[in-house]
Amino acid sequence: MKWRSLFLLAILVAVLTGCRGTPHQGAPGRFSFVAIGDTRHYSRIAQPQAYRDNIKQINRIRPRPEFVVNLGDLILGHADRDMTIWEWEEFDRVTAKLKPPLYLVAGNHDVWDEHSLALFIERYGPTYYSFDHRGSHFVILCSELPVEDGHIAGAQLEWLAADLQKHADAEHIFVFLHRPLWVSHRGMARSGWNEHVHPLLAKYGVDVVFASHDHEFKNYGVQDGVQYYVTGGGGAPLVAGAFYHFMLTTVDGAEVSSVVIDTKGNMLPHDVVTAQARTTPSEVRSTVSGAIRNGTLGGKHASVLVWDSHVVELAIPCEEPGLARPNSQ
Ligand SMILES: [Fe+2]
């Protein structure tokens, strides 16, 4: 009888935690996690090959990342309930191949009205929440709540302020959301992020903010100690010059470092695209796609931009990455 009770308790815990990673404290120490975004398909038939390729590369990383955060736009969405459920089942089927535990962020293709929001919550749980891992704190925000008009406001903003205050002594704090509400384009300048959210993040020492929505990688730099990234190359159609990728972030004591990994397993420094945009002729930038490769220039390791089989521009010199390369095993 006792074993039966324990078995039922285990099932209850599994149901409550859903398909997400199991939140746990864990001992402080060196660990890594993945951020990937916009893995959705562009038809309703199947998840894109680039998402499957990214899953393969994530699974090859050693030591294994301890969890993955998908930053949203997981399905095409904007369909009726039956079709949306069909899309979610396809997402679940492909995503089941991912080895590390998974945390989800809702994107605008996943949640677009009250019905799709209810379906998302029914399948995957709350759209904003937080968890602790090895002494660091991780905050998942939702930029898609109809009642908050695509902003971080109202009850969610109050929750965020309280959550950050409660975990102010965490070794590191990381924040994840779908839309890069800090940027000035696509109507996001009126989100109130820079007036109401960023000051909170700066006050409580947030290390990094990850968003996606734009189908590219972009390093927005550090503002008031907060590093901002867009990593939206998980599988959806790319903007010109972008490449499919995900980000691997390593926490080692006080140190936090991030690299970008493409679907071939190439590891690129976290400012590679910024450097590419700075140094690459615009006609090349608008034509080339997925052509950044690690290489050697003048005897030094470097990331180079390759176009039509020729190295056309040095993207950025970099140190030999200290992490194990995903395709080296
Ligand atoms: Fe989006």
Can you walk through the features of this model?
With 329 residues, this protein is of the alpha/beta class. It has a single domain (21-269), classed as Purple Acid Phosphatase, chain A, domain 2 (4-Layer Sandwich). It has helices at 2-17, 49-60, 81-95, 114-124, 154-166, 193-203, 272-279, 282-285, and strands at residues 31-36, 68-70, 102-104, 129-133, 136-140, 173-176, 208-211, 217-223, 226-231, 245-252, 255-262, 267-269, 292-297, 300-307, 310-317. The strands form 3 sheets. A 6-stranded mixed sheet has the order 3-2-1-10-11-12, with helices on one face. It has a 6-stranded mixed sheet with strand order 4-5-6-7-9-8. The longest helix is centred in the N-terminal third of the chain and has 16 residues, at 2-17. The model is unreliable at 1-23, 274-293 and 295-329 (pLDDT under 50). Residues 73, 107-109, 178, 213 line the site of fe (ii) ion.
Task: Please describe the structure with a list of short key phrases separated by commas or semicolons.
single chain; alpha/beta; 6-stranded mixed beta sheet; disordered C terminus; 8 helices; 27% helix; 329 residues; binds fe (ii) ion; Purple Acid Phosphatase, chain A, domain 2; 26% strand
